[in-house]
């Protein structure tokens, strides 16, 4: 066994460039497979964490997408049929809902002193913390009375504080300009991270809905109503109930297409996972192609080795080596290429995991089973790639080989 390994090492060292290319190709394919499995599992865990931060048992009601033709290609636009009174109708008419909160948002410039940044300004009601599980790091959330009075008060996220305020400054009590209008900061939200859509939820400023509609956005309709079901089992029932309530409120018959879209968290999560799964399949296919190319590289190295070592094979056969000995020699060499490729793949996977997590902005889960599977595939690929060359080498007749 030791003699076979020693001979295999020397044979691979005889053509270092071809051996290195074969090992590199196999290693790159294995690394891609390991990294993408890790990124996929990290994305699934990230989605689960974001659902918990977002608040469980949510149903999202938004205006339906309509189409219009104005002398050009058909365009999709959001209808403006969702109004503040619909939130009250849903809250009072949906028995499966604990609470509801209206939402209208715009991206505006936020300014404090000489610092200015773009931020998402969200107009909503005092019920939003209960609906979305919003926690505060300081101060308080605005009240229904402040909403009814269209007061200019605001609750800011941590990214807003970091972008606009000096380090260590206390935002509560300061005056913040949003779209040119001054607001008093009365609270600071606890960090929440990114949403399911990838939006930074800490780069948000919450203001009373009536203040937002009349003083900032100058509209009288909503972008969304968020409902919270009593339990996870009630989510689907609440979604159906919400559509029925709004059909009555908007005087839309049961056969007509509704002017709102009602979605559950499960639908959003399923869409996100479907995109992630398609991406993972695509890149895993690329990794598989890289592994295949590596296998072809091993095959070419071994076949070229037969041509270059024909006299050596003939000499070994002439002094007593059996066909089995020659075949084992080539199988050992091809297997070593697979083992080295797996080792290179491990190193590349460890190095690329951090980069991949930064690029896709999701946690990376190092999957031991994926690593073991990729290692097994590399070794098996090397072994299989050496079968044909081993059979060909073992089939050479000593006399014919020595003549070449």
Can you give keywords for this protein?
alpha+beta; 2 domains; two-stranded antiparallel sheet; 12 strands
Indicate the topology.
Blueprint: H1 2-14, H2 16-54, E1 58-63, E2 65-68, E3 75-78, H3 84-93, E4 97-112, E5 115-124, H4 128-132, E6 136-139, H5 144-148, E7 153-156, H6 158-164, E8 175-178, E9 181-189, E10 204-208, H7 209-217, E11 224-229, H8 235-249, E12 260-264, H9 265-308, H10 310-318, H11 323-360, H12 368-385, H13 387-394, H14 398-403
Parallel strand pairs: 5-10, 7-9
Antiparallel strand pairs: 1-11, 1-12, 2-3, 4-5, 4-8, 4-11, 6-9, 7-10, 8-9
Helix pairs in contact: 1-11, 2-9, 2-11, 2-12, 3-8, 9-11, 9-12, 9-13, 11-12, 11-13
Account of the protein in words:
- The protein is elongated and about 105 Å long.
- With 404 residues, it is an alpha+beta fold.
- 56% of the residues lie in helices and 19% in strands.
- The protein has a 6-stranded mixed barrel with strand order 4-5-10-7-9-8.
- It has helices at residues 2-14, 16-54, 84-93, 128-132, 144-148, 158-164, 209-217, 235-249, 265-308, 310-318, 323-360, 368-385, 387-394, 398-403; strands at residues 58-63, 65-68, 75-78, 97-112, 115-124, 136-139, 153-156, 175-178, 181-189, 204-208, 224-229, 260-264.
- The chain has 2 domains: 2-48 and 271-403, no CATH class; 80-258, no CATH class.
- Mean pLDDT is 78; it is low at 71-77.
- β2 and β3 (75-78) form a beta hairpin.
Low-confidence stretches: 71-77
Strand order of the largest sheet: 4-5-10-7-9-8
- Major sheet description: 6 strands, mixed, barrel
Order of helices and strands: HHEEEHEEHEHEHEEEHEHEHHHHHH
- Tally the structural domains: 2
Q: What is the number of helices? A: 14
DSSP strand count: 12
The end-to-end distance, rounded to whole angstroms, is 29 Å
The secondary-structure class comes to alpha+beta
Rg, rounded, reads 32 Å
Shape estimate: elongated
Percent of residues in β-strands: 15-25%
- The whole-number mean of residue pLDDT values reads 78
Specify the helix fraction band. 55-70%
């Amino acid at each position: 066994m030791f003699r076979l390994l020693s001979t295999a090492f020397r044979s691979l060292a005889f053509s270092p460039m071809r051996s290195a290319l074969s090992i590199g190709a196999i290693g790159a394919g294995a690394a891609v497979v390991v990294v993408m499995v890790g990124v996929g599992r990290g994305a699934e865990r990230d989605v689960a964490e974001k659902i918990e931060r977002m608040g469980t048992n949510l149903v999202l009601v938004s205006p339906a997408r309509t189409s219009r033709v104005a002398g050009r290609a058909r365009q999709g636009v959001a209808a403006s049929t969702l109004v503040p009174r619909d939130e009250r109708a849903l809250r009072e008419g949906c028995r499966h809902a604990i609470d509801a909160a209206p939402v209208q948002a715009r991206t505006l410039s936020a300014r404090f002193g000489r610092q200015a940044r773009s931020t998402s300004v969200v107009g909503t009601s005092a019920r939003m913390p209960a609906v979305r599980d919003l926690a505060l790091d300081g101060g308080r959330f605005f009240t229904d009375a402040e909403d009814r009075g269209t007061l200019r008060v605001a609750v800011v996220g941590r990214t807003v504080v970091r972008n606009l305020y000096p380090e260590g400054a206390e935002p509560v009590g300061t005056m913040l300009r949003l779209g040119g209008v001054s607001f008093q900061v009365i609270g600071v939200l606890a960090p929440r991270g990114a949403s399911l859509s990838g939006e930074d939820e800490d780069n948000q400023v919450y203001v009373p809905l009536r203040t937002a509609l009349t003083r900032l956005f100058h509209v009288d309709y909503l972008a969304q109503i968020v409902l919270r079901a009593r339990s996870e089992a009630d989510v689907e029932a609440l979604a159906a109930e919400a559509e029925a309530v709004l059909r009555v409120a908007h005087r839309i018959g049961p056969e007509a297409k509704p002017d709102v879209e009602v979605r559950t968290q499960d639908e959003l999560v399923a869409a996100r996972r479907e995109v992630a799964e398609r991406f993972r399949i695509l890149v895993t296919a690329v990794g598989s192609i890289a592994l295949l190319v590596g296998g072809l590289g091993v095959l070419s190295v071994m076949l070229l080795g037969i041509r270059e070592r024909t006299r050596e094979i003939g000499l070994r056969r002439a002094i007593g080596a059996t066909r089995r000995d020659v075949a084992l020699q080539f199988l050992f060499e091809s297997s070593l290429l697979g083992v080295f490729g797996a080792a290179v793949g491990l190193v590349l996977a460890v190095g690329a995991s951090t980069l991949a997590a930064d690029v896709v902005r999701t946690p990376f889960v190092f999957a031991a089973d994926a690593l073991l599977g990729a290692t097994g595939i590399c070794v098996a690929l090397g072994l299989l790639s050496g079968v044909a060359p081993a059979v060909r080498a073992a089939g050479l007749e000593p006399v014919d080989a020595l003549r070449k």
